[in-house]
Design a protein that fits this description.
alpha+beta, Ribosomal Protein S5, domain 2, four-stranded mixed sheet, 3 helices, globular, RNA-binding, ribonuclease P activity, tRNA binding, Ribsml_uS5_D2-typ_fold_subgr
Length: 130
């Protein structure tokens, strides 16, 4: 074990947390079978929450496998991520993806979010009046 834990403080827990991210998503990263929505975090560290509907991923064993894989990637990459709240949204056919592909796609999407978050302040800063 690497010593990196997944404590409660790294999870989106309340409906208000999810709503805040869903309504005010600033960053998006899409892979074919899932979408990551994110916004800067008010808590000072990165947190993640999952929306995996039974309609999209039928079996509970598949939903749990997907969450376990994504949590693991998030936990390992958390130190590289800027402080942001992330919602993982499952799309159709996510259950047919094997674990290795899911891990690769998830890491790519998290890197994309981190890159967008780091670039955002430089792009958004208004010019200074002279």
């Amino acid at each position: 074990m690497t010593g990196k834990r997944y404590p409660r403080s790294l999870r989106l827990l309340t409906p208000a947390d999810f709503k805040r991210v869903m309504d005010g998503a600033v960053f998006k990263a899409s892979q074919g079978s899932f979408l990551l929505l994110a916004r800067p975090s008010e808590s000072g560290n990165s947190r993640i929450g999952f929306i995996i509907a039974k309609k999209k991923v039928r079996l509970a064993v598949d939903r749990n496998r997907i969450k376990r894989c994504v949590r693991d990637d998030f936990r390992l990459m958390n130190s590289e991520l800027p402080a942001m709240d992330i919602v993982f949204l499952a799309r159709q056919d996510l259950s047919v993806i094997d674990n290795m592909t899911l891990h690769d796609n998830c890491r790519d999407a998290l890197r994309k979010l981190a890159r967008k978050a780091r670039q955002q302040p430089s792009q958004e800063s208004p010019p200074q009046p002279s």
